[in-house]
Structure formats: structure tokens, C-alpha cells
Amino acid sequence: MQATPPPTLTPYPIGTPGQAWGAPERAAWLARQRVQRSYADEVLAPLQAHPPAPAECFEYGQLDYRHLGLGTYPLMAVRSRDWQAGRPTVLVTGGVHGYETSGVQGALLWLRRDFARWSHEVNVLVLPAISPWGYETINRWNPEALDPNRLFKPDSPSAEAHLAMACVAAHAPQVDVHVDLHETTDSDNDEFGPAKAARDGTPYEWHEVPDGFYVVGDTARPVPAFQQALIEAVARVTPIAEPDPQGCIIGSPVQAHGVIHYDFSALGLCGGITQARFTTTTEVYPDSPRTTPAACNEAQATTINRAIEFLLGR
Fold first, then answer.
1. Where are its TM segments located (predicted)?
2. Which DSSP symbol is given to 219?
3. Dist. CA 31–CA 52, nearest whole Å
4. Which of 72, 126, 142, 204 has the fewest C-beta atoms lying within 10 Å of its C-beta?
């Protein structure tokens, strides 16, 4: 786990401690962000160059941030070409937090390598990169300083969340399994946690970053056997996170080895957008010396495969 925090934390460089941000602070935050990688090259090009044969790739919307001096971003999804009403349906979402690299690249790996394997048994809808501006700037938020993964709610102010929900409702209204791909990184403590506290005018709640993979189940649909099957499969790929001395992972009580629970719907999480029988949020730790980027991507793909196997009773 990440080292113990310093006794005093340096105030975030934007805003006044204890006061929520207004428009000037949000503008100042946006001015600090820089493009660090290419959504077009690293996401769109692979999708267009090597679509799985039994799949179709389509644009489900476009983010338009020209009013902020930025550009537009096409949002892409991949679905089974031979969609059949009698088959179970699997939803995979990645890149809700754009900076969580393996959430995007793990989804692309699975599409490239494993999609065809399941094409005759399940319907599949994949949204591999829900927050492309966040992917390019390695950011948790969108350009309006909103966290999409707290805004999967009706009338969401996050265009990323709104468009993703509309896509799922239109193309996969009945879902049996939903796997939402995420990471927990050291930057959660170094940047994004302090930024959130500054934005909201609240104290920063520091938690150790767990050194390993874990999953988050929904308190309303805990399905412990499903979550444990995922953990057992991923343990062959990358280490599983251990609880802290209080028996928690990032402040949440451990329910079983590598498993914690959140209330998906109440928190506005992507994992709560369907009534799927089986839903999980993965959390990979890419900053660990015990893993590699390739292993992180593999952990995400392994989770999807094991989730489908579990759905099919294997």
C-alpha cells in the first residue's frame, strides 16, 4: 500500500480551503489541464482498424466541449452483430474515469482477443472509453470538473454519463451481467482526492491505496459467489488487495477476500445503470511494483471472461 501520508497536507493550489469552487476556480482548474495522449490514436484507431468479425462498431453520441475552448469527441460502442433476443446480454463499460488506463485498454484487449469467443452464446455491448477528454488529459473529471461516475442519474449534468445511459437503454435494455472497468491509483491521493476536497470545500479524507486488485459489489445485489469467482480468476494474473489494519479497503469494510460494497444507485455509479443480476466494478492498482501495464489489462479482460463463464454456469 502507499506510504503513510505526511502529518500536514499541502492545500490544493486552487480555491480557498473550506469554500466550494465557483466558476473562476473551475476555469482555473481547467486551464491547468494538458493533453498527454491521443484518444484518436489509442482508442479510435484500434477500434476502426481491427473490429471483431462478429461485432459492429458504431458512434452513440458526441461530446461537444467547444464552449470551453476544446474540441468534440465521437463516442464509440461495439455490439454483437448477430444480436438475438433469446440470449443473455453482457454489458462492459470502460474509461468512465479517463485516467484509469487499463479500464480502456483492458476493454480493447478483450474486444480484440475474446469477443469472438462468446459471440454465439451471449449478446455483448461494450462502451470502452466513456470519457475521452479524461483519457487524453489523464483525468478523473470531465472538463467541467464533474466526476461522471457520481452522475449516472436521471437528468445527469455529465454528458458522458447521460450519453452512455442513453446508449445502454437503446441497445441493451435487458442486461444480465455488467462489468465496469476501473483503477485505483496513487494519483487518487496525490491529485484527485485533494482536488475534490478543494472543489467541494470539504476536508480531505485520506485512505491508503491498496496494493492489488479488488472488486466492488452493489449493496443491493451483492452476489458473493460471483464476486469471489472473479477474485479467484484474477488472482492468477495480478495480486489481490489485502485489507488495512481496520479491515477496510479505501475506507469500506471488506466483505470477502478482495471484495467491498458500495450503494451503486445512491452514489450515481455506472455499475448501477441496469438491473443486471450480476454487476461488479473492477479496481486495478497499476502503480504497484508487483504488476505491469500488460498484467493490468489482462486482469480486466480476465474479469470479463470469468463473469460470462459464471453467467453461463461454468
1. none
2. T
3. 39
4. 72
Per-residue pLDDT of the chain (314 residues; tens, 9 = 90+): 444 554 457 789 999 999 999 999 999 999 999 999 999 999 999 998 866 678 999 999 999 999 999 999 999 999 999 999 999 999 999 999 999 999 999 999 999 999 999 999 999 999 999 999 999 999 999 999 999 999 999 999 999 999 999 999 999 999 999 999 999 999 999 999 999 999 999 999 888 899 999 999 999 999 999 999 999 999 999 999 999 999 999 999 999 999 999 999 999 999 999 999 999 999 999 999 999 999 999 999 999 999 999 999 99
Q: How deeply is 253 buried, as exposed, middle or buried, from its count of CB atoms within 10 A (0-12, 13-18, 19+)? A: exposed
**Of 116, 81, 120, nearest to 312 (Cα)?**
120
| 95 falls within a domain | yes
Return the C-alpha cell found at 39. Answer: 484518444
In a domain, 1, yes or no: no
| Listed residue (313, 310, 304) closest to 112, CA to CA | 304
- Whether residue 9 is contained in a domain is answered as no
d(CA 158, CA 274) in angstroms, rounded, equals 18
> Domain of 35: which CATH number?
3.40.630.10
The domain total for the chain is 1
Domain of residue 86, residue span: 23-311
